[in-house]
Amino acid sequence: MSEPSLASLAAQLASKQISSRELARAYLDRIAALNPSINAFITVDPEKTLAEAAAADSLLAAGQAGPLTGVPIAHKDIFCTDGWLTTCGSKMLHNFVAPYDAHLIQRFKAAGMPSLGKTNMDEFAMGSSNETSYFGAVKNPWNTAYVPGGSSGGAAACVAARMAPAATGTDTGGSIRQPAALCGITGLKPTYGLVSRYGMIAFASSLDQAGPMAPSAEDCALLLNVMTGFDPKDSTSLERDKEDYTRDLDKPLTGLRVGLPKEFFAEGLNSEVAMAVETAVTELKKLGATTVEISLSNSQLAIPVYYVLAPAEASSNLSRFDGVRYGYRAPEYSDLNDMYAKTRAQGFGAEVKRRIMIGAYVLSHGYYDAYYLQAQKIRRLIANDFDAAFQACDVILGPTAPGTAFKLGEKSDDPVEMYLNDLYTIPANLAGLPGMSLPCGFDSRGLPIGLQLVGNYFSEAKMLNVAHQYQLATDWHSRQPEGLK
Amino acid sequence: MSLTQDDVKRIASLARIEIDDAQAQATQARLNSIFDLIATMQAVDTSGIAPMAHAQEVYQRLRDDVVTESDRHAAFQAVAPAVENGLYLVPRVVE
Questions:
Q1: Could you read off the pLDDT of A237-289 as tens digits, one per residue?
Q2: Top-tier CATH class for A6-252
Q3: Which of A39, A264, A379, A465 has the most other CB atoms within 10 Å of its CB?
Q4: Mind telling me how many Å the CA of B68 is from chain A's nearest CA?
Q5: What is the CATH number of the domain that holds B16?
């Protein structure tokens, strides 16, 4: 498993050097060895995985294989998976075995990619450290005293520790990009509407978007080819012609205009992160890119706007968890309202309850205009800033997060401190733009640093081109944590 | 703006989340620090700006008025806490 690229695994499968079952078994063995210390997986079911791998081997033998048939992948536990425990990291769904597949799961099944299991996450995807999971915190494979980021922390950690060659994640305010940065892998949040949300447990529906997480940009391009496509079951799914996201990987970067938002390099940015990002800019210039300073002047408002809009949508979405149709129900109650209130008090963790309460408040009578409507108007200003910026550049570049991984417990008592982690990632969600994170160095403690690219709508192929060319010239993305036990 | 403990209890009740005095007190401090952060957007002049509800200008699609789903109520009710004769059971609400 020294060369984990998806293209090379697919080539080994195609040439019968290895079977899908052997490959799945190797990853399952590594999960069995490492998961007790990393806690990246909530559910592993070797029998199911190997049955899916056997089916992939049949496709390979029959000459009916697609580009990634037989390559295994880990799925965030936010995706409903038929017959698998699907918890969303919550006590509320600790016993929920999904009766159907999310659209994204159907796509990976149709592609013949066996599931290695369901990855740990912040409860209902609300968190930036993976510490809010009912199933315990995930540890960062680079140093297990540190958080992996969140909410797709299990996905990022399992890829970083090579317990899976790739994983799915979801990103509402940075939940793919921030953990990808903190764990030293590549992750991409596509343009809103490219990947169906059907069967993906909803947090903030106007922001939620699923995407790939893997060591390299090339891997992410191959995965995006599987994940994207119109789905009539998601009313916000976009009807577009199918794209090949690998098509521009090999193009030179000559003439590329890289926009550097001055607000992303201002106060609050860790100096080691700033230095690594600036070094990456120099590298891109060597590859033919030019830089232009741009301004996203309303970006400092992204966090307050997000913490109105996302909780408002969450308070509505999470009202479905009432102890009636699925999941947890309180053991004792006096009447129906008491059953709801006790079920929700016992089934949700503290951060989820806070966000539901913020949402209920900002939507309540007398506060709607001051909070919800004002936030929606500033959301427009933030999107307009990006529109203007893309007149002057092809791609926007900056840090993914203001710092590297922090220690477990360091920020878990202070929600506002935790929220500031997503300072640079939230603006892309509000505008619905694609964003990605790729590794660009390490800090003095040996923890990975992430570089963020934000592209214009539907410019994923361009972003992947930039990231791939950078990864051909550097080796940060192929570094792996040592001494894992 | 600062939420009182009674405000917190009222919000919790709106959200159907049981909360006791000690929890309301702990929650009050955290919610107030979050609302302090949110308050920074109040100073922005947004007159004449259209609210943005969504990233894409998409409209609800129409489909033919035909049944497309199969009956899977048994599978869906198998994951419910209490079911009898195909019905979800809850505490009595009408005497």
A1: 999 999 999 999 999 999 999 999 999 999 889 999 999 999 999 999 999 99
A2: alpha beta
A3: A379
A4: 11
A5: 1.10.20
